[in-house]
Amino acid sequence: MMKLTKLILRAVFVPWKNSEFLQKELTSGLWTRSLLGLLFFGLAFSLTSIIQAATGNFPGVPIILPLGLENYFVWQAILIIPWLIVSWLLVSFLAKSELLAVGARKVSFRQLSASLALSFYPFLFWLWLPHLLTAVFYLLGMSQKEWVDLLSEPGWFQTLYLAFLILAISTGLLATTITIAGRKWVKRGLSWLTAILAFVLWSFLIFILLR
């Protein structure tokens, strides 16, 4: 548990050291811990989704998936963990295919997927904080209408939400770019391109479900 905690904290707050860390941990069960880290974030989102469902609230922004609006957070709580894992594996597979297509001689799927998992932690962490904040406000008795009004009107609440979203996207993209480029599977420019496409696809998949 301590190793997993250190792994998550290191990946979230010092992502520029991911490549160095990955080189040292190639045979120490890193892939399993990377998977456990994603499961941890999935559980965190599931918990806050359950809170929002239990307080009788529903998404304040349009949904994409054909799930019932009133029970959306129940479905989100159920689906978020497998959704994270399947999205991660899909992005990892496509990123490996792209690296091989642009000239990489050999790419270990386990090493690449572990690299991507660590890179995605900052995105998930900063994205979860507003989710947690919303759940706390609902627990304190805030109504759906009050939450929508508070979020839609310019002020500290809206600014904080936007700051968390910008931080999630920027740190996630930066972490993915630095980590993939640092592994030196292909030239730096091609590594950047692979990382950017991988992160864009990853964030798109997450935003399809997460509300």
Detailed description of the structure:
- The chain is an all-alpha fold and 211 residues long.
- It has one domain.
- It is built from eight helices and no strands.
- α3 packs parallel to α5, α4 (72-101) runs antiparallel to α8 (188-209) and α7 crosses α8 (188-209).
Please identify the structural class as seen in this structure.
Answer: mainly alpha
Uncertain runs: none
How many helices in DSSP terms?
8
Please tally the β strands and state the result. Answer: 0
Radius of gyration: 18 Å
Q: How would you describe the shape? A: elongated
Order of secondary-structure elements: HHHHHHHH
* CA distance, first residue to last residue: 29 Å
- Taken as a percent bin, the fraction of beta residues is under 5%
Mean pLDDT: 91
Which descriptors would you attach to this protein?
211 residues, mainly alpha, 0% strand
Concise account of the structure shown:
The chain is an all-alpha fold and 211 residues long.
Q: Would you spell out the secondary-structure blueprint of this structure?
A:
Layout: H1 2-13, H2 18-24, H3 30-54, H4 72-101, H5 109-139, H6 144-152, H7 156-183, H8 188-209
Helix pairs in contact: 1-3, 1-5, 2-7, 3-4, 3-5, 4-5, 4-8, 5-7, 7-8
